[in-house]
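Researcher: Please translate sequence to structure tokens.
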Amino acid sequence: MSAMDEAAKTLQVDIWRGGAQGAFQSFTVPHEVSQTVLDVVTYVQRRLDPTLSYRFSCRVGMCGTCAMMVNGRPRWTCRTHVDRIADDGRIAIAPLRNFPVIKDLAVDMTAFFDKWRDAGARFQPRDGAADSFANVDPNSPARRAASDAIECIGCGICHAACDVVSWNPDYLGPAALNRVWTLVNDERDADPAAHLAPVAGDAGCHACHSQQGCAVHCPNSLSPTASIAGLKRQTLAALFRGQL
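Model: Translation complete:
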């Protein structure tokens, strides 16, 4: 077997090791048919270095816990096939950008979800809502606006892709703001307009530069940029009405 044939059967994988001040470590792994990046990471952990830390759960693109930076781009590694992204038989895998690194490929998402809290991104049912089933017209403009944004699973891909998050740590971020947009348009909520005040400040929707990195990288094809644009319109309207 020629050296070229042998090289085609292996991958050179650079994986981030350690914390924020860590470094890449190189591994050679077999190159398999229909191999995903998560398969590669799992092979390294099970066969080459059991101390490698990373997260995964469903392996079928449903939970989002396997999100990592692959060749500098945030991706769900279980959906990312090696053959589509390998550069001359080499790939680089790192922890999600804009998150504190716990160890290797595992990041701390506490601050990410704290921003959902700070944005007021919690559904508040109306009094007596549990006594009857809410009938919502699926064709109403508000319902359609909420439906366009509601499939977010909180994987953090948009947060990692956002340049504003990188230089403004106070910015609430696309995921939290996207969630608020669904609540502003949810007629079952006790006070949809009350969700506008927490996102109207300097760290809220108006800090977004509309670069659309969140929309480009979202694995569920959502557009947090569009949701944030809706919040910008709603908060300005509320300001002119004297409600903010």
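Researcher: Any highlights?
Model: The two ends are 72 Å apart (CA to CA).
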